[in-house]
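Hey team,

Filing this mostly as a record. A colleague (T.K.) asked me to run one chain through the structure pipeline before their review meeting, and I want the input and output archived in the tracker in case anyone asks later how it was produced. No errors, nothing strange. Just documentation.

Input sequence:
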Amino acid sequence: MNIIATYHPPGKDYGHMKIDEPKTPYNYEVDMVDHSSELNPEELAERIKIAAEKPPKILEDESDSSDEEEEHLTEEEKQKRKEFEMKRKKHYNEFHALQLAKKLLEEEEEDDDDDDNYIVPRTTV
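Output structure:
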């Protein structure tokens, strides 16, 4: 009984909180299914036949769509697009440039190490 008196003071109700939330509203319209929007089997077969004749969208050539987009651009927008593409190419080429610079630095350090091993002859006067 000491434990109850110590860890469970009167008026304190542990683990039994009252949650004051409204009930989730029930949507009664979901039960009333509209059967008039059902798909006709013949119409479905026709759609499948048409879709089977087309190539998958993932295999379509993207260059066609980009050409169509460029037709609608103004000269200023075309110029901005070219500048953006050039900046993007430069950005992705920076990685290769950094790799080349790192390689050159390593080669230079190797050359410096070789020079350090070389002993300069002393001249006496």
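Quick notes for T.K.: Residues 17 and 23 are 17 Å apart (CA to CA). The longest helix spans residues 75-117.
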